[in-house]
Amino acid sequence: MARADQFKALLRAYAGNEEAQFYAIALQVAADEAQRGHTKVASELRDILDEVKLRMKPRTSARPQPIAQPKGELADLLSVQYPNTHLSQMVLSSLVEQKLRRTLTEQRHHEALAGHGLAPRRKLLLVGPPGTGKTLSASVLAAELRLPLFVARFDSLITKYMGESASKLRLVFEALKMTRGVYLFDEFDSIGLQRGSQHDVAEMRRTLNMFLQLIEQDTSDSLIIAATNHGEALDHALFRRFDDVIRYTAPDANQIELLLRNCLSLMASSAMDYPALAASGVGLSHSEVVRACQDAMKDAILAGRDVVAGDSVAQHLHERLQSEKASM
């Protein structure tokens, strides 16, 4: 029979009137029964689901549905992804990981919180240097919660015409009410610059004011993630609109060592001196360390060896880490 977590998911979908989600979970139950050899039960379930699907069709156009790709004007404002990277695959500081796990826990138990008049964290501001995992964190939250990741396209959102940017921003906020997901505003300083700064212009000020109003009024079930490399340049009023501010930093030696072990697990030798290599990478971002590992493995392979030795990878990695530092 179906597992307890499947029953819970079915009940949640039914209680939330999420027909498409209910149908998808029920199909999983039928597939599980077929794998266990219960072919008759699986066949009966599929027959029932076929009847349910036919009854669903007349209503699908009248209610919001999970979308594979934003349609109409939204297609220019949002791109969509379905990430599969999980939190366990990331290397983060304990504080950042703790805050992300807290968000996931509150989201997964939103019904219990609502029963006491409380709302889960769902508006996050991610601040930190480039390459430290902010954008990846948004992908992880989407993957962990099995939600689509919608990324705002600022090249289309921001225009020079008066009021047009604010109007498009309002359209994005209408979308997150219609389709639950994780909505990422990356490089958020594009619209969030402090009002009154030397880069402040009237249209950007109007757009920022509209964002402040929309995020404060928003009561949807979607997660809103804003990420920036320049937290110090953001308007101070923004910080109060978010449920949590998560600050990212470059990895320390211990985190770099873990990154190296994860990246080189298939090509490293038991004699590889990870602590020494990690020490040479201090000061680099997560993405720079990962790129150095990938380049080192490519270098070792392209060196023409039939068998890639761990010491060869280590030598190339040391050179790559130094090269990354030199280019900073």
Q: What topology does this entry show?
A:
Elements: H1 4-15, H2 19-35, H3 39-60, H4 74-77, E1 78-81, H5 94-108, H6 110-114, E2 123-127, H7 134-144, E3 149-152, H8 154-157, H9 164-178, E4 182-185, H10 189-192, H11 202-217, E5 223-228, H12 236-239, E6 244-247, H13 253-263, H14 274-280, H15 286-302, H16 310-326
Parallel strand pairs: 2-5, 2-6, 3-4, 4-5
Antiparallel strand pairs: 1-3
Helix pairs in contact: 1-2, 2-3, 9-11, 13-14, 13-15, 15-16
Note the beta-strand portion: 5-15%
**Rg estimate, integer Å:** 24 Å
So what's the overall shape? globular
CATH topology of the largest domain: Rossmann fold
- Helical element count? 16
Largest sheet: 6 strands, mixed
CATH superfamily of the largest domain: P-loop containing nucleotide triphosphate hydrolases
Number of domains: 3
Name of the CATH class of the largest domain: Alpha Beta
Task: Describe this structure as you would to a colleague.
The chain has helices spanning 4-15, 19-35, 39-60, 74-77, 94-108, 110-114, 134-144, 154-157, 164-178, 189-192, 202-217, 236-239, 253-263, 274-280, 286-302, 310-326; strands spanning 78-81, 123-127, 149-152, 182-185, 223-228, 244-247. The protein has 328 residues and is an alpha/beta fold. Strands 1-3-4-5-2-6 form a six-stranded mixed β-sheet. Helix 1 (4-15) runs antiparallel to helix 2 (19-35), helix 2 runs antiparallel to helix 3 (39-60) and helix 13 (253-263) crosses helix 14. The N and C termini lie far apart (57 Å). The model is unreliable at 57-68 (pLDDT under 50).
